[in-house]
Automatic annotation (TrEMBL):
Residues 117-231 form the OmpA-like domain. Residues 90-115 are annotated as: Disordered. Residues 105-115 have a biased composition (Basic and acidic residues). This is OmpA family protein. Keywords: Membrane. PROSITE patterns: OMPA_2. Gene3D superfamilies: OmpA-like domain. PANTHER family: LIPOPROTEIN YIAD-RELATED, STATOR ELEMENT OF FLAGELLAR MOTOR COMPLEX.
Length: 231
């Protein structure tokens, strides 16, 4: 009897070992089941053209991650159709962030000197000229004013413009008459510029008379003109 009692402690140990062996067997079986289900689910998702890397299993319950938002229901249907799967949870992939639109570079506004160069080149090609002894623009002069108006109206608002009138030096008119005629010519152009879109407060007119001739004694036609200065 004493010997039988001495061996009684072996009974709990045997039970413990049996339980451990059963647990290991159960774990190994569950692991094999999850691996097999994962393999089948990945194969089914791939065949359906869906990403397969995000599928995993806990027992017979599947989790599928990073599926395109418009393919969530399809992924759920495909995995649920795998034999042995009990439940399926599908999460959509986070939408890709759109890159911020590039900000357009601000247009570089011309400097005063640049605008003056453009203006001078325009007036050199198409001078603003007048009829003799008159503040009435020539046909070419009217065309020239229209081109100048487009340029000035588009210029930055910080710029102002002086319209300077000039006349040819002739003995028929006095210095005062020349000054008044040049002023009339300047005002004619200034008014026309305003009519064609240049703000009134950006334009001033000055008459210089015959004090700034361009042509020689044989050609005074260029003296009947208007010049414009950027301020």
């Amino acid at each position: 009897m004493t010997g039988d009692r001495g061996r009684l402690w072996l009974v709990p140990l045997a039970l413990l070992l049996t339980g451990l062996l059963a647990g290991v067997a159960t774990w190994a079986t569950a692991d094999r089941i999850e691996s097999e289900l994962q393999r089948r689910a990945q194969s089914a998702l791939g065949a359906a053209g869906l990403p397969a890397d995000g599928v995993s299993f806990t027992g017979r319950d599947a989790t599928v991650q990073d599926v395109p938002a418009d393919k969530v229901e399809l992924a759920r249907y495909v995995v649920r159709g795998v034999e042995g799967v009990r439940d399926v949870q599908v999460s959509a992939a986070a939408p890709a962030r759109r890159p911020a639109p590039a900000r357009p570079e601000p247009a570089r506004q011309p400097r005063k000197e640049q605008l003056q160069e453009q203006l001078d080149a325009l007036l050199q090609r198409s001078p603003i000229t007048f009829e003799a002894y008159s503040s009435e623009l020539s046909t070419e002069g009217e065309t020239a004013v229209a081109g100048v108006a487009d340029l000035l109206a588009a210029a930055p608002a910080r710029f102002r413009f002086e319209v300077g009138g000039h006349v040819a030096r002739v003995p028929e008119i006095s210095a005062e008459e020349a000054r008044q005629l040049s002023q009339d010519r300047a005002e004619t152009v200034a008014d026309l510029l305003v009519d064609q879109g240049v703000a009134d407060d950006r334009v001033t007119s000055v008459g210089y008379g015959d004090t700034r001739p361009l042509g020689g004694d044989d050609d005074i036609s260029d003296d009947r003109r208007v010049e414009i200065r950027v301020l």
